[in-house]
């Protein structure tokens, strides 16, 4: 079971309350919680792959931390990044490896 997300409200609750609500309650509360359809672990791998492909590295770092909590291993993350290097771009892979090393070498 995914844990209750409050990042939207914590970061933007006062500034953009509806966006924060959608982030916490719909994206994480409804979509991420549909584990009978797709596990949180698999969702984490897909999300990290998408964020890396787009070069969204601040979000990638946050989601790599979630992926680790959801059971994605260092070896799996290395393999995901290596695979994507050929499709998303070598420089993006280098950036993603820097983030992964920081998160998974703890």
UniProtKB/TrEMBL annotation:
Q: Where is the signal peptide?
A: none
The protein depicted here goes by the name: Carboxymuconolactone decarboxylase family protein
A GO MF annotation of the entry reads:
peroxiredoxin activity
Which species is listed as the source?
A: Lentilactobacillus parabuchneri
Instruction: Give the InterPro entries listed for this entry.
Output: 4CMD/NDH-1_regulator, AhpD-like, CMD-like
Q: Which Pfam families match?
A: CMD
Show where the Carboxymuconolactone decarboxylase-like domain sits. Answer: 17-101
